[in-house]
Amino acid sequence: MINLTYEYRIYPDAQQRELMTQWLETCRKVYNYALGERRDWIKSRKCDINACSLHSEYIIAVDAPKPTYYQQKRNLTAARKVIPTIGAVHSQVLQDVMGRLEKAFNALWNAGHGFPRFKKRFRSFTFPQLGKDPIGERTIKLPSIGEVTATVHRPIPDGFEAKQARVILRPSGWYVQLILEANLEIPDIIPSGYAIGIDVGLNSFVATSEGELIARPRFFVESQHRLKELNRAISRKKNGSKNQQKARQKVARFYERIANRRKDFHRKTAHHLCDQAGMVFAEELNLKSLAKGMLGKHCLDAGWGEFLDALKWVSWKRGVYFSKVSASGTSQECPACSASVKKDLSVRVHHCPECGYQTDRDVASGQVIRNRGLTTVGHIVDACGAEPVGVAMKQEISRAILGSPRSTR
Q: What distance in Å separates the CA atoms of residue 246 and residue 51, rounded to the nearest whole number?
């Protein structure tokens, strides 16, 4: 079973825009109400009887059941019969809102995330099921909304069927993400072919084991002066006025443009790396700690996590083996003789006193990553005796999945 996500721009008419905007607001209120129920129940059980809050405290009966996912879904079904605004929204859309809240609490309990927060705005809603043949030549049919004009810029691959749809409101307009499903079995990619290692950083966005250095575009840093001007324009407008709303919309669109430029760069860089090899190895980074450091703004501007996710996806589509290795000491090891070469961040050239090997510091890290990756999968390649994956085979695998080796997610 394979799932793909295709995104299309949609152009709803005035009536459809008003309806979808009302749905977003109703979804936000339902989410906040359900979150409030859970929060109040938890607070009523956490506080000691002799140490209640001086401000306020929620008193709930001892035998009151804990608000759960299924209980709140049943209450939502009953509320649809008495509250017109809730009944006007598609039932499965509101059920999916309850699923989002449940995922937020599961992330709190199992993944160490923070307590879920109340939403100031809702940006999307999801249809878990779609009708038969919802995609037309220039339209997409959504339940309870009808046919919406869309730019179907690429066709659905053969064998795939649209199962779900997520409608998203962005500063630039409305979009729909279609979840495509196909009952196909794609074999795992065998680690074979030419291998390269990549080291991501701030001095160079990517340094490969082949000596290539890809410069880091500073999408956000170089746009700060323009953002400063746009935010000053907001401060000059009267609070709550239409002109202030227009100025805020300009800021939101500019942020979206920065994100789109960064995403486009990541996808093109991923394809460029996949053109060179049959195996790509990267280091396993602790992105959370990097984002909280002194250079956190620049780390977030580079978007290493998004890039590595894009590289993993592009590699899978094009039949290139991708794997991550430990990042411990990659810059303190000689790729030629594996000797330990201590150096601080100010030293940008690797020079080994043992064997005399000298190269760029980041390139040496990429070579160490490549060596570690080959060590990890070497026994698999030897056991299988696989031949290097050629360009023709990569294209054949890609066509079998999506019909084009250079199509994007």
A: 48
Cβ–Cβ < 8 Å for 255, 300: no
Q: Tell me the pLDDT tens digit for each residue of 21-73.
A: 999 999 999 999 999 999 988 888 776 666 666 666 667 777 888 899 999 99
Q: Which of 367, 363, 218 is nearest to 303 (CA)?
A: 218
Predicted TM-score (pTM) of the model is: 0.83
Q: Report the C-alpha gap between 250 and 218 in whole angstroms.
A: 20
Distance from C-alpha of 213 to C-alpha of 312, rounded to nearest angstrom: 20
Token pair listed for 289: 């700690």
Give just the sign of the alpha carbon dihedral 148, 154, 155, 159: negative
Q: How far apart are CA 100 and CA 98, in angstroms?
A: 5
Q: How far apart are CA 298 and CA 155, in angstroms?
A: 37
Contact 219, 258 (CB under 8 A): yes
Task: At 331, list the tokens.
Answer: 């810059």
Cα 155 from Cα 146, distance rounded (Å) = 20
Alpha-carbon distance 312 to 406, whole Å? 14
Question: Collapsing DSSP states into helix, strand and coil, what is residue 151?
Answer: strand
Provide the 3-class DSSP secondary structure of residue 114: coil
**8-state DSSP, 381:** H
Q: Which residues pair with 227 in a beta bridge?
A: none
User: Model confidence at 354, in pLDDT bands (50, 70, 90)?
Assistant: confident
